[in-house]
């Protein structure tokens, strides 16, 4: 019996990494990944870009502000997947 909850797809992921350029280069070789939006923000403490891989947008960020949350994430975990966003058929059932 279905409870009404169904994940349709992963819509967006964010990876915070210690070296943005190295990650973009590696993913470019692996999956012909291309950055279509790039920005740097002191307010959010990182530089990075957005790309698409299949039907998933991937944001890759590198800390640029000492002590900011992005830097603390890299220091604690060495970088990696920071967040995921899913498309679901029924938000109430999912919650």
Explain what this protein looks like in three dimensions:
With 95 residues, the protein is α+β, with helices and mostly antiparallel strands. It has one domain: 2,3-Dihydroxybiphenyl 1,2-Dioxygenase, domain 1 (Roll). Helices cover 26% and strands 44% of the residues. It is built from three helices and five strands. The protein has a five-stranded mixed β-sheet with strand order 2-3-4-1-5. A hairpin with a 4-residue loop joins strand 2 (35-41) and strand 3 (46-53). The model has no long low-confidence stretch (mean pLDDT 89).
Brief overview:
The chain is α+β, with helices and mostly antiparallel strands and 95 residues long.
What keyword list fits this structure?
alpha+beta, 95 residues, five-stranded mixed sheet, 2,3-Dihydroxybiphenyl 1,2-Dioxygenase, domain 1
**Unreliable segments (pLDDT under 50, ≥5 consecutive)?**
none
Radius of gyration: 16 Å
Q: What summary fits the major beta sheet? A: 5 strands, mixed
**Which architecture does the CATH hierarchy give at level 2?**
Roll
Total number of helical segments? 3
> CATH superfamily assignment?
2,3-Dihydroxybiphenyl 1,2-Dioxygenase, domain 1
The proportion of residues forming helix, as a percent range, comes to 25-40%
Shape: globular
Q: Can you identify the CATH class?
A: Alpha Beta
For the termini, the CA-CA separation is: 18 Å
Strand runs, count: 5
CATH topology title: 2,3-Dihydroxybiphenyl 1,2-Dioxygenase, domain 1
Q: How would you summarize the topology of this molecule?
A:
Elements: E1 7-16, H1 20-31, E2 35-41, E3 46-53, E4 56-63, H2 69-77, E5 80-88, H3 91-94
Parallel strand pairs: 1-4
Antiparallel strand pairs: 1-5, 2-3, 3-4
């Amino acid at each position: 019996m279905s409870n009404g909850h169904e994940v349709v797809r992963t819509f967006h992921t964010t990876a915070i990494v210690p070296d943005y350029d190295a990650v973009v280069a590696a993913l470019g070789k692996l999956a012909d990944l291309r950055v279509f939006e790039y920005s740097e923000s002191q307010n959010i403490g990182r530089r990075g870009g957005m790309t698409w891989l299949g039907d998933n947008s991937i944001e890759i960020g590198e800390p640029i502000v000492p002590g900011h949350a992005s830097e603390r994430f890299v220091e604690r975990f060495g970088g990696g997947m920071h967040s995921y966003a899913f498309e679901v058929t029924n938000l109430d059932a999912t919650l």
